[in-house]
Amino acid sequence: THADMGYSFVSLSCVALCLEHQREDGHALVPPLIWKIKQQISTDPTLHADFAPALGLPEFTRRATELALGRECRAVVENRVLGIQTVGCTGAVRLGAQLLRCWYNRSTGWRGPVYIPSPFYAVFQAAGLPDVRQYRCWEAGQWAASEGHVLEDLRAAPEQAVVVLCATAYCPVATDLSQKHWKHLAHVLERRKLFPFFLMLGQGLCLGDPEQDAWPLRHCVSLGLELFCAQSFSHSFGLYGERVGHLLLVLKQNTLLLALQSQAESAVRSLWSRPATLGARVVATVLSNPANLAEWREGVRSAAERCVLIRERLREKLRLLGAPGSWDHLTQQGGLYCCTGLSAEQVAFLAKSRHVYLCNMDYVAESIHLALTSPL
Amino acid sequence: LVPPLLVLQVPQATPVAVFKLTADFREDSSPNKVNLGVGAYRTDDNQPWVLPVVKKVERMIVEDQSLNHEYLPILGLPEFRSSASKIALGDDSLAILENRVGGVQCLGGTGALKIGAEFLRRWYYGYNNTATPVYVSAPTWENHNGVFADAGFQDIRPYKYWNAEKRSLDLAGFLGDLESAPEHSIFVMHACAHNPTGIDPTPEEWKQIAEVMKRRNLFPFFDSAYQGFASGSLEKDAWAVRYFVSQGFELFCAQSFSKNFGLYNERVGNLTIVAKDNENLTRVLSQMEKIVRTIWSNPPSQGARVVALTLNSPELFAEWQENVKTMADRVLLMRAQLKAKLQALGTPGTWDHITQQIGMFSFTGLTPHQVEYLSKEKHIYLMASGRINMCGLTTKNIDYVAESIHEAVSTVQ
User: Which of A14, A35, A60, A87 would best serve as a mutation to test chain B binding (most B beta carbons within 10 A)?
Assistant: First the structure.
């Protein structure tokens, strides 16, 4: 899917999270805190194996909502927020897309468009929203987020279009915008009556602080906008195979909350019936215990720091090797993905000949240098 | 600044009956209350039961430092998929040997039905099957309708199944509907322990069903949620599916491991695909991948690991079979005792169906008014259809339940 976008990315995620816990084969180990909690869960005699509620474990959805919106969010206090545990971020996007398809602008028979810069477009189409359009967010050739392009395209979008936005600079084509840029964007969303659908993956891993990473989302909520947000906990918690996701729904009025909840239950019933509990239990245990929470925060903070270091090392290594081109964009970009600017053939070379997907930065730098300088 | 108008216009959805039942039960403060609508196994102390073998394997998993904790492949854990399909079709399955059987790990039985339905709607017979009739038994698990409708099937029809008067299978009706169904229709059938009636066709009856389906080119989509749990024997409970495979059918089988592993919470399911040949299978699986990517991307690992480790280890497998038999035996005991007590009380009507039916559920034959009486006057909760979950019965409450049913049947129409 990344190849579809015509860009190439190096994922720093597994490296970042487990740099000192990486195995020989490059696979990520479970972070110690998570492993400890999983042990506790496996020996806890009070935990039973009954079905979770359709919309998920309440202790998880509460904490997931709190992590995204903060403790003093007015929308939560006013009971305008619904949180639903989903099967990963994909599950959250799928459920959100289905709810929009059924219940957004019903009287007009609305079927789109959905503006989306990321690979989730197939999910929207499968949910019955075929009119999926891209908006520009990169300054091509400079490999940096372009506020100008984003605003231009959104200003031209039809009113009440759904716009998918990456709250954190985690998605490969995330809009890595400053707070000032986000304020402009939010203003356009308001004026054009656009419906924001945030994607928040790796909250805490981008700026090293979950609150700062959630700023774009919280800003829009504070403006009173109605919006959805799909959260993933894979990267921030090292819980990949467990499929922990969350769909946040923020409404303008609380009168519709129960109705929307009943419709969401109905939709979930035909998708997966109930979500799986292990990952959600782990996350809830982390977020609801002050000592665990502190340890987790420290973990994401240092992971984000390591990412910055890795970017610097990669750039420096490429410079020392004399790799053709300029590599400043590596350190100018933020987050856990790194848009290298390599071509499709060069990326294929990395995979086939050098088996580069993640790991040891020296090896990565050498491989990139080879990709750029050898005949392919 | 006044925010723009609300754009989400949402009516309340019809409540799901079994959820409401659970809620009503929870709010009831009577010390005698009994929940016969619960959808999960309960011990004689009315507690949920984590199977001992599951507890053991879960601890093994946590301690195993060599495990890869990344995303599973899109179609799921390979050793889970193969062992799950093998459990359904048998170790000696020719179809498996011929390499034309595949599995897709899904979110429980519902997930397996969902993926199967989405595939069939796109690819079953021609490119657009929204008009292809899908037949579900009358009655059936109410979510069958929802899953197929949501997948885009517009023509979902009942086939005759339950003879209310005789409290038995309406075989003639079933066969008649098979004969008159348009060719290539899809038939959703319960592999064993029919939900909600508890009545399964006998092997002879299955043979008749298969003969018509073969002749009329109908597609079997099995729902297998109770293998092992129904009779205590994995082989016995898989007889129908294996027979159809032996007759050369291409078919789907949606397997759930919620009940027989007690893993309700980890959503462990497998869609077993029996294709004509390996080439077809490969193409089917590639399309399944595309569908999975738009719903959950890749499935959760925990439950699949537990099942795979158990099924692939002879000692753990034997221990699991013991655990399953424990559950099945308790259900059989409650059936026998309920029938005996009702007969001893001289409750009007016949009660043989309670021991003739199989699996977790029994279609008691109680009328809606009798059901209402039980919940309002006796604090005994069951589905309006008269379906009870045998697991809700214990040696401690069975006398109370039997007496209350006796009262209801004697005084209420």
Answer: A87
Q: At what angle do helices B368-378 and B398-411 cross, to 10 degrees?
A: 130
Interface of A with B in 16-35 (CB under 8 A): 27-30, 35
Mean pLDDT on A170-198: 83
DSSP string, B197-263: T-----HHHHHHHHHHHHHTTPEEEEEES-TTTTTS-HHHHTHHHHHHHHTT--EEEEEE-TTTTT-
B13 touches chain A (CB under 8 A): yes
Chain A contact set for B297 (CB, 8 A): 87-91, 243
The string of pLDDT tens digits covering residues B83-136 is: 999 999 999 999 999 999 999 999 999 999 999 999 999 999 988 999 999 999
Over residues A223-239, the mean pLDDT reads 94
Residue B75, classed as helix, strand or coil, is coil
Residue of B nearest to A23 (CA): B66
Question: Residue A172: what pLDDT?
Answer: 52
Beta-bridge mates of residue A163? A115, A196
Phi–psi pair at A283, nearest 5 degrees: -60, -45
B108/A30 touch (CB, cutoff 8 Å), yes or no:
no
Please give the pLDDT value at position B4. Answer: 34
Inter-chain contact B59–A48, Cβ cutoff 8 Å? no
- Is residue A15 very low, low, confident or very high in pLDDT (cuts 50, 70, 90)? very low
Indicate the DSSP class of residue A336.
Answer: S
* End-to-end Cα distance, chain A: 22
- Least Cα distance to A167 among A185, A148, A191, A146 occurs for A185
CA distances from B7 to A106, A108, A199, A251, B1 (A): 8, 10, 20, 9, 17
Q: Is A259 within 8 Å of chain B by CB?
A: yes
Q: For residue B60, what is the nearest residue in chain A, using CA coordinates? A: A42
Residue B169 CB partners (closer than 8 Å, separation 6+): B161, B162, B163, B199, B200, B201, B205
- Which residue in A106, A269, A285, A359 has the most chain B C-beta atoms within 10 A of its own C-beta, making it the best mutation to test that interface? A269
pTM of structure: 0.92
Q: How far is CA B251 from CA A28, B116, B167, B244, in A?
A: 39, 10, 29, 8
Contact A28, A14 (CB under 8 A): yes
Give me the residue label for tokens 């990326």.
Answer: A347
Torsion sign across C-alpha atoms B57, B62, B66, B70: positive
Strand partners, A110: none
- Identity at B215, one-letter amino acid code: R
Contacts of B296 in chain A (CB under 8 A): 87-88, 90-91, 94, 243, 272
Is ipTM beyond 0.95? no
Residues in A touching B68 (Cβ below 8 Å): 27
Q: State whether residue A125 sits within 8 Å of chain B by CB.
A: yes
Residue B296, chain A, CB below 8 Å: the answer is: yes
Residues of A in contact with B63 (CB under 8 A): 39
- Is pLDDT of A329 > 90? no
**B146 vs A contacts (CB less than 8 Å):** 266, 269-270
Rounded to whole angstroms, how far apart are CA atoms A60 and A361? 36
Q: Is the peptide bond before A130 cis (omega within 30 degrees of 0)?
A: no
- Active-site annotation of B, residues: 141, 223, 259
Q: What are the tokens at B221? A: 């989509």
**How far A88 CA lies from chain B's nearest CA (Å)?**
7
Q: Are B265 and B41 in contact (CB under 8 A)?
A: no
Helix, strand, coil percentages in chain A from 3-state DSSP, rounded to 5? 50, 10, 35
User: Could you tell me which chain A residue has the CA closest to the CA of B20?
Assistant: A262
Give Dmax (Cα) for chain A: 64
Mean pLDDT (chain B, rounded): 94
Confirm or reject contact between B12 and chain A (CB < 8 A). yes
How many CB atoms lie under 10 A from the CB of residue B207? 13
